[in-house]
Amino acid sequence: MNHSRTAAPLLAALTLPFATSALADFIEDSKGSLELRNHYINRDFRQDGAPQSKAEEWGQGFTARIESGFTEGTVGVGLDAIGELGVKLDSSRDRRNTGLLPFGPTSKEPVDDYSELGLTGKLRASKSVLRLGTLQPLLPVATYNDTRLLSSTFQGGMLTSQELAGLTFNGGRLTRTNLRDSSSRDDIGLGAATSDAFDFAGGTYGINPQLALSYYYGLLDDIYRQQFVGLVHTLPLSGGYSLKSDIRYFDSRGDGVERAGEIDNRNFNGMLSLTKGPHRVSAAWQQLSGDSAFPFLNGGDPYVVNLVTFNTFTRAEEDSWQLRYDYDFAALGIPGLTFMTRYVDGRNVKTATGDDGEEWERDSDLAYVIQSGTLKGLSLRWRNVTFRSGNGLTTDLDENRLILGYTLALW
Predict the structure, then answer these.
(1) pLDDT, tens digit, for every residue of 334-363?
(2) Mean local confidence (pLDDT), 399-408
(3) How far, in Å, CA of 124 to CA of 127, rounded?
(4) Across the chain, which distance is largest between two alpha carbons, in Å?
(5) Which of 134, 226, 241, 391 could form an S-S bond across to 237 if both were Cys, CB 3.0 to 4.6 Å?
(6) Phi first, then psi: what are they for 300, rounded to 5°?
(7) pLDDT value at position 398?
């Protein structure tokens, strides 16, 4: 397919400010895609006195992405766009609150649809790129959420630089967030507390192809400040085995007037994964200390190894461990079919009534991606969850999720 002929109609409005000769890479290097995601969640609450017996919703998500190349010259200019639309297929007032669909503040009725449009301007010089506008960072101190119909986004600016060999630097400021089930852009914050900005800086240095070290600093003004140190190491072993170590440490403290209350948390967590052929066995742990839960931005996810399907295991003083097994059925002649199962156990949670709260989660995940034919690339996934808690924690549930996904390249 001729890229420039296909992309030109969609990018025509962007070409006017520039000379034609400077636009070649801007258009030729552009790409567009449409992601379709059909998501069904059935959550059955099992605890006594649950506010609702179950949460059950079904929706269709559409995410269009357009990424331009850069204009020629010492400083290249580009523009990206993301458009998201979520459509209700089935829900009701008494079955809401799965995170798929927003609902009215008064009526509590799930909306029929919701959407977002985001634009990102970008400047490139040498091996550095500055992005301004809608962002979806994947950093230890700021990670966007992509586990429902639509992904969350942030507003702000971010510089990514690879000027030094082996080092990737990221720094910037986030000021607004759009939640995964919302059409509004809200002030950046933690829980009910909002802030003027979240500033961050840090990077990852690859010492060699097997070992990388990371450091990041984040400051949510007048709420919390956070430091992160991480290590990822892959060790080839004899007999076709490979051992991966992923070690992470966060130190989080209050900042300024502490609008969200006292923040005092240290979080040491890591995962070891042993792989041979289609098999992977993993063991993980998280150890939290301090007087508060682990803080992370509204609209984001915590960068911890025990972030699983339903729970994050990041409550105050919580210690948790995980065992996980993955299998790729390509070894049995069924490429595209994969299986995962895991169990996470959390203990010693600090609650209003004591210091021995408990919770555990068991997940199973069966996925298949069609490998050929008209529907090549279509993914089908079934996720099954069991979650239980006690000793001051009061959520028990059984859950199933069915997810169909397909990404269509527009050009």
Answers:
(1) 999 999 999 999 999 999 888 999 999 999
(2) 98
(3) 7
(4) 69
(5) 241
(6) -120, -175
(7) 98
